[in-house]
Design brief:
By secondary structure, the protein is α+β, with helices and mostly antiparallel strands. It contains seven helices and eight strands.
């Protein structure tokens, strides 16, 4: 048995249960997906035990989210070959998830005030770099957010999330003005701050988050940001502890049919 197989088997022996559904783990999953990071250089410590069904379950949806995470970043980095491959992959596998680039000038004018974006006064609003995200994207992002919630729960709570737990997630583009308000209000309540890293490689602030977990109630909350693209918040709790919204769904819904 080669070194790679030995390492994998040792990891699975130490982590025998799938982080997502709780069944026997047979593979190693990366959450967030390696596709979400520039040149697929991902942070260390975000490998998780998974059964084959849960590892493969996200499928092309992970590719969709990776495309939008890289496309939505405003840190000045130039598009890479990886980005072009993601566009081609989504176009071939799930074209309904591609952005709609034919927004009218009036539609762009309506949404411009939502963003921390100064459009030049002498430039037609029709030329503003704004695209519309298709409604189908909610499916891809919700799957990503719920997997991320389960992964961070496993990492920081030290156990598989109970299937009876309720999960609620929410996302904003980091450039939206309301994202600033969310970060200012939520981050101070989540005392554990994490900036993910990779040894001997500077991956920048591509993925960082704050979290809080209550061992007694098994409640878990996180606020995460991917560079300057998207901000995510996730809450997982027992049914009796739900508060602040009607859009909770049980974790058991995520594993039906697997």
């Amino acid at each position: 048995m080669g070194a790679g197989k030995k390492r994998k088997q040792r990891f699975l022996n130490e982590n025998p249960l799938c982080f997502f559904c709780g069944e026997q783990s047979t593979t190693i999953d990366h959450v967030p997906s390696r596709q979400c990071f520039r040149d697929r250089v991902w942070p260390e410590g975000y490998e998780f035990p998974a059964c084959a069904a849960c590892n493969n379950g996200a499928g092309s949806l992970e590719q969709v989210v990776a495309l939008y995470l890289l496309m939505g970043n405003h840190d000045g980095e130039q598009p890479t070959t990886q980005f072009q491959k993601l566009i081609s992959g989504v176009r071939n596998n799930a074209p309904q998830y591609l952005p709609k680039i034919d927004m009218s000038a009036n539609a762009k004018k309506r949404v411009l005030p939502w963003y921390n974006f100064e459009h030049p006064a002498d430039e037609p609003v029709a030329n503003a770099p704004i695209v519309e995200l298709p409604d189908e994207n909610r499916t891809a992002f919700q799957a990503f957010e719920r997997r991320l919630t389960c992964a961070l729960y496993y990492l920081h709570m030290g156990e598989v999330m109970p299937l009876a737990h309720m999960i609620r997630t929410y996302r904003l583009q980091a450039i939206q003005k309301s994202a600033d308000d969310l970060i200012r209000s939520a981050a101070p309540m989540l005392p554990n701050g994490i900036i993910t890293k990779r040894q001997n490689t500077d991956i920048g602030n591509q993925f960082f988050y704050n979290w809080y977990g209550d061992p007694s109630t098994k409640m878990f909350v996180f606020l995460a940001q991917f560079s300057l693209s998207f901000v995510f918040i996730g809450v997982a709790c027992r049914p009796e502890d739900m508060a602040g919204g009607e859009d909770y769904r049980p974790h058991s819904d995520d594993v039906v049919g697997r």
